[in-house]
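User: two proteins, same treatment. go.

Assistant:
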Amino acid sequence: MKNVITFLMCSLCIITGIAQSDLSGNQIVIPERTPALEALYQKAKALEQNGTAAEINANRLAIKNAWQKIDPKVAALYKPIVTTNYPLGGDGSYRPTTIPERPVQTKSPDDWDTDKLLRSGYIDGLDMDVTTDGDIYIAAFENVTGGGSDSELYIYRSTDGGNTFVLWQDQPVSSSFFAKIQTITIDGTGDEYLLVYASFQNGVFQAIRWNMATGVMDFQTVAVDVTDFGVDTNFPGSTPSQRVFATYQKTTSCTEVHSARSTAGSYGFDWVDEISLGICGQQVEFSYGLNRGCYTTFTGASSGNLYAQANSNYNDPGSWGSNEIVASGAATESLNPTIRATRKAFATDEVLIIASSRAAGSSDPYIGQGYRRENGAAYAPVAYISAGSDANVAHIDTWMSTAGPVEVMETAYVRDDIDNSINDQNRSYQYDGNTFGPYEGVGDSGVDVFDGFPSAIAETHDGLLCMAFAATSSGCTWGYGLYFDAKNGVTAGIADNNFEGFKFYPNPAQDMLNLSAKNAIENVSIFSLLGQKVLKITPNQNKPSINVASLTPGVYVMKVTIEGQSATYKIIKQ
């Protein structure tokens, strides 16, 4: 069994009990809310969707002050996090400059384009996100060993749906090594930002932020003594109202799971309301659903249990539910769990946890095991995938469009060949809200996928799959080479007649489809796949919107005319 999916055990015992704890880990009983408090929480829910940053923050303080009169210990949960930016440090070991090859297999990918090599060099971690109008951001880091103890963060951007990429940012980091990164895009009405949340090997958990328009970079420390984290964001249309939420493992008397959230108006900065969830854990991940629902999963530090918790109010420190044991560590070994919530309201939610899994104490290959929560009920097992007797299902990734309410979720895993006789491979696997469809192979036959961290899955602007991943060296020792791939019809076939600077979003669309071009859009026609024209408008403006609510759900072809020239695009109606 290779060491890339090992389970790090801790000898400390689980702390059980009530979810909310203060910063010292002391358990706090949350009293019943008064009618006035309940009204403030309901107002918070409305403001998160439609309020200004000032209104959101003022209401949070009103909740804190109301609790102060009832129970000061609960009021103390609403506490700012110190944002001192700590110095970074790290060390490393030498890596060779040449990468020996190993035998490759001949199977071609199903329905996917040729892999695009974005960077030739070591890759020690990566992530990807796509904005609502289709811009793709891929972040990858290299811990530069042998000649010092620095690291480098690379950001690649595509504004044409994955046809072409540019190295948008190249950010050196002095005297520190990355441990993990996750990308968040804050886009909509107002200033737009790309954030890379990073934990470093020295325990610093930071937000690194770029203005999408100007490229100006800033950074801020979220917390220290952090060993793992998961982040996600809500997505009201106004970017000042968007916030980022997180759960993370912070070393106290153990690797204790904590929760916090950024402040409205800070664009992913100024983190507040840090609390302990009252349990020692590891391998933590986080997801936001829709209209206030927040969810986290992690494994127990000594029990090996797979846990989950839900927060009913935008990561409010007093709104976490109880710990739920999703899978007992005595019966099942669970590794690297992921969690993703569909875009459905909290009372009617649908949340999926997927983990590498096998019987506790066995040496069997790891399968992918899913667990599903529906309508607030307990998690129940749901079949995901097995890679057979000669391979592990490793490092699962999930992604969802911010369009809502939707249920379609993109998932991916690395098929880790146990004896390394053939290449490790990427697999994509779509969840439609009920079941998983057939898996699809991803990647060219000559590319050996690295199995030490997840390949990142997402969708391009036309609603089809794309993936960022690293290849590897002999023996899967290091990631080497950053690649991008997409379904045929995403990067292939559209480029020949694509208007420069033209965008359309969201895709899939439910009601309104927004178009944007450098010059006035003269005509837009939408056809069924049988060639029947189902809609036509003549906007004669740069940024028209099309009402597609009357169309039957399915795939359509959109023909756009600008300055007498036409181009076609595939759109999806939900």
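Protein 2:
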Amino acid sequence: MEMEKIDIIEKAKSQKRTALTEAEAKEVLKKYGIPVVEEKAVKTIEEAEMAAEKISYPVVLKGLGSRLTHKTEKGLVKLNLKNKEDVRSAALYIKEAAGSDLEGFLIQPMLEGKREFVAGLFHDEQFGATVMFGLGGIFTEAIGDVVFRLAPLDDNEAGKMIDELHAQKLLGAFRGENAPDKSALIKTLVGLSRIGMEIPDIKEIDINPLLVTAEGKVTAVDALVVLGKAIDQRITPLPVKPKDIEKIFYPKSIAFVGASANLSKWGHLVYTNVVAGQYQGKFYLVNAKGEEIAGNTVYKSVTEIPGPVDLAVITVPADKVLSLIPEMKKKAIKSVLLISSGFSETGAEGRVLENELVEKAREAGILILGPNTMGICNPHISLYCMGTHVRPKAGSTVLVTQSGNLGTQLLAFAEKEGIGIRAFGGSGNEAMITIEDALEGFEVDELTKTVVLYIESIKNGRRFFEAAKRVGRKKPIIALKGGRTEAGAHAAASHTGAMASDIKVFKAACRQAGIIQVEHPMDLLDLSAAFSSLPLPRGKKVGVLTLGGGWGVVASDLCVENGLEIPKLSEDVISHINKLLPPFWSHANPIDVVGDMNTETYMTILEKLLQWSECDAIIHMGIIGRIMIIKATLESTIALDKKYDRKFLEKSLRYLEDFEQKSIERTVKLMEKYDKPIIGVYLLNDDKSRTITDVEDCKYKGVNFITPERAVKALARMYQYAEWLKG
């Protein structure tokens, strides 16, 4: 089988052909278990007539030739031929239309089917062999209902791929016809995957249409195989050992090269942030001018520093950086944070400079993070080495961004919302340390529980994919992709190539690797708050508890739109709640407590829902944030009634704050007891409101968002990840 398959391709290559004939293409597909139509290839019109008689009418006649790649558009496919005269007439027309490109004819039985799919294979320049499945026929590109997966695929992944197609109605019984044979569809996709991994001489495959008969039989009735070497993988930086990355985030001494007394300079912003942030290690200021800055000695070179240096933070102009390498080598500095810009991000000249810098640094045994980076932080050692003076608390969420500004904005949000940060790295140009290195580094870091990424580009798609797949089994990865362009990277020799694009393949790789993809920057930390603070849901059934009916309707709609379910309450749950609420409560999920402000009522209902087997998670709205309404009421009262004063207001507010804190604590303890997530939505919020509330001696935390949509989105993504973990 292998030899026959290779012979077909070797013959085509020896003839310097760029494609197989349709008959040859189907021979290759058939060897890989893909169901192809029974057909006959012939050389002459007379042989076509004889073959048609054997197959039995009606038949299909096609022109055959390695250069005839888009036969339908050229009129080289004739359908529903019912007799010998039809075949001869069609053959004469095809012979005239195809001209010297005609090598023969292909005779097939005329198969009928209302449903057509397309399947294909191509080699993405970042991710390699990629399989495509979608709606077929003449509307393939117009409708664009397609799904991608990276090879290799197993039956399970191929099945998931089919289930993601939007047109699911066409995959079931349809207008009196049986459902397509799903096992045949799976065999087709797995077969394409195997070809992609085993035959490097095949560049693209297009099966269109993959026809479904009324009986549900799936058959490839047309196929195109394009030959050519797979796209060479981009040259990427050498992998960096996780321990070497760790050293950058745990320096015992830092040299600030380019230190400045000027408030507007990076050389001032970075070192003052580190020192004011209570960094406990030693620091040294370096500037060619020497002198003093803020009472600190300034050394003219790193070689003058009396003690060892673990990390050099460089802010000098780009054209001065290369000359620092020999000095750092002499001082035995192994780690560099290169803040300076003016390298590959500026164009060809800067790229040459960056490449030379990397070469010299590697020769000197120096590892560079950057250039053009916003910096790093490690709150666990009070290290805030960035230009922006934000200082989030220590936690378990890693944040790696290819945009420094976006990264520091997210850190400021994390600081405000109480989201703990394991570490932050602005990866900059990634001249030596890439986002793939970061993934592998935090994979083995025990303090990291959640990985958050902002990505604009990747250096090595396959490595990124494989690393993410491994990391995702241990800790969730949340990613936002910038630059979601539809600019395709493929020569569109087929429908498959035409349908592919950078962002579609990237999204498919993320989905396959279990990465939770988001659309907005704030989603990154909303999800990190949820993943780092709550248990994963075991299913998608949500109990909704609300202070008002409209809110419950909105939350229910959002749940359904995001793939969650709102189950009907059982008689037991209804009976239990009847004892707690007035007769006019909703008697349904969402549970409207009709304005009841009694926290005990809320908590009792929460626990009953958690005990209910049909409830996998709870969203409650209105328990937290009532203090704002009460505060406004008290403010109005003391303004009008002189027997109340400001002390009464302050005492009342302290009581209410303590009351809400205890409510959050009780909610968290319920989560620990039942191991089901509970997410809150503030009734009202102010500048003191926080997404996360820590509860002493508890592994989970209180999570309260300011809108229902943020709560639902977070829960939906947690469910998505939990399902991926199940395999």
